[in-house]
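Quick review question:
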């Protein structure tokens, strides 16, 4: 690396934090820019916290295999943050599922997933309206614990982290990049790693690089109180519900593929209003009405959930590949659209370890070629 340079990592969700730590371990001088006041403040925290093993993607083997690849590496790296002491069941709906029970079993066997068949009516809680049930070894991530761990690791690392600093632009300057914030040019770097997720294309377009359309979704994951021991219920494969423990909090996360999406836009950029961390599309009355629809969809399969009570909501933008409804493909991608400029695109927290390795490999290849 040149004396004037270093590596800028934009975004300090789990992918930005892990990439920064890995780069710093390799001897690179790293500066992290995060517009929020703490790491994991948006998409990394505002999700289902599922530690994916691949069960969720029977229509896209690539995504499933990436999940299998990432699962054990994440568990090893962040074992303290992984919650495994609960039954976690997957079920195939009797109606409107995109896969049949046999297709789902064939998929699980084909990618080498381990499971135990279970009678849905004997599961706790009993699950209705499904034709197949299985116990899995999937876990969840306690994101509050993960955030604390990453804060400690970043504090102990040589990386410089600038919280509350919004990157307004990235400009090419010959073989280097100027990172501009509201205060002006914050530094000139030899490489930039864009881990902003929903804001990736904005910076990419500024560099004159291709920025393909994405499907942007503003979602609400509901935090609920429910008088039941920790348990997971995921109904496949369509516009159904997921219930998972909210880390070790004693509460649950309730999500519905359709009703939890408050807005959906397919474009090259997300709506600019979504960049505001305080942005919300529903007032309390609207939020409770939306929760009612999510709960109605959930009790179709888990009748005992009718006693669940709304506690809080995790809301924010997420991004998936556009026009993939036929396969539900959700791969993670670490790419270099231009020399020295790397983008990380993923909604799977447990892919962050291998993605960090890919970032290091790409930065090393770029700096070695200079």
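Suggested answer, residue by residue:
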């Amino acid at each position: 690396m040149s004396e004037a340079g270093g590596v800028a990592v934009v975004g300090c969700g789990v992918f930005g934090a892990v990439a920064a730590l890995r780069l710093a371990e390799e001897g690179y001088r790293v500066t992290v820019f995060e517009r929020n006041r703490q790491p994991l403040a948006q998409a990394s925290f505002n999700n289902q916290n599922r530690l994916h093993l691949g069960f969720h993607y029977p229509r896209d083997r690539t995504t499933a295999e990436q999940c299998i690849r990432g699962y054990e590496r994440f568990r090893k790296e962040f074992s303290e943050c992984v919650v495994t002491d609960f039954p976690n069941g997957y079920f195939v709906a009797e109606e409107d599922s995109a896969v049949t029970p046999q297709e789902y079993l064939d998929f699980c066997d084909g990618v080498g997933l381990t499971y135990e068949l279970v009678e849905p009516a004997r599961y706790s809680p009993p699950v209705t309206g499904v034709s197949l049930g299985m116990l899995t070894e999937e876990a969840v991530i306690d994101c509050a614990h993960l955030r604390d761990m990453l804060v400690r690791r970043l504090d102990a690392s040589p990386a410089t982290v600038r919280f509350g600093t919004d990157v307004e632009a990235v400009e090419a300057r010959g073989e280097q990049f100027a990172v501009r914030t509201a205060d002006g040019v914050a530094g000139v770097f030899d490489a930039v790693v864009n881990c902003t997720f929903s804001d990736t294309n904005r910076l990419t377009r500024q560099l004159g690089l291709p920025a393909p359309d994405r499907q942007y979704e503003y979602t609400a994951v509901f935090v609920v109180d429910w008088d039941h021991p920790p348990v997971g219920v995921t109904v496949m494969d369509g516009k159904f519900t997921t219930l998972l423990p909210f880390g070790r909090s004693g509460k649950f996360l309730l999500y519905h593929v359709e009703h939890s999406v408050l807005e959906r836009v397919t474009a090259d950029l997300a709506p600019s209003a979504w960049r505001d961390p305080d942005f919300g599309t529903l007032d309390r009355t609207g939020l409770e009405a939306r929760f009612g629809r999510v709960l109605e969809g959930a009790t179709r399969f888990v009748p005992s959930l009718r006693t669940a009570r709304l506690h809080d909501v995790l809301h924010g933008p997420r991004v998936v590949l556009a026009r993939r409804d036929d396969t539900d493909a959700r791969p993670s991608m670490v790419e270099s659209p231009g020399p020295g400029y790397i983008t990380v695109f993923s909604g799977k927290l447990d892919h962050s370890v291998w993605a960090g390795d890919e970032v290091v490999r790409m930065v090393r290849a770029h700096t070695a070629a200079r």
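Why it works: The chain has one domain: 7-369. Residues 7-369 form a domain with the FAD/NAD(P)-binding domain fold (CATH 3.50.50.60).
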